[in-house]
Amino acid sequence: MRRRALLTALTAGVAGLGGCLGPAQTASGPRRAPDAPASAPRESDPGPVLVISDFRTEADDGGGVRAVVVVSNRAESARTTTVTGTLRFDGEEYVRTAERTVPAGGTSQVVFTYDVPYEAFQRNGAFVPSLD
């Protein structure tokens, strides 16, 4: 009786290892990236040509908020954009816009002013510039 149980256990053990004892898997698929077509060489996307390169907030002469935004042009020709400055404070949103032409390879500075107390804005406000 014990032989029959032993043979059953051995058979089940060998069957359980059946999938583990096969030949080692070999890699499949290409070994290197495909060549680019000769008529269309690969080019990487240089990204946007107009970017916000810097911005800061400070107090103006009257104690309000002054936001200074610097826009850089990475293109080889002048570009025009709309700069938007959004100030969030005390559950309110204040939006200012200005159109600027930025020279090729150059920068342009935009200044927005808001009638919000700068000291209070520093504690509980946010300024977000964007380009349209």
TrEMBL record:
Ranges annotated as biased composition (Low complexity): 22-41
Positions of the UniProt region annotated as Disordered: 21-48
Protein name from the UniProt record: Transcriptional initiation protein Tat
Organism: Salinirubrum litoreum
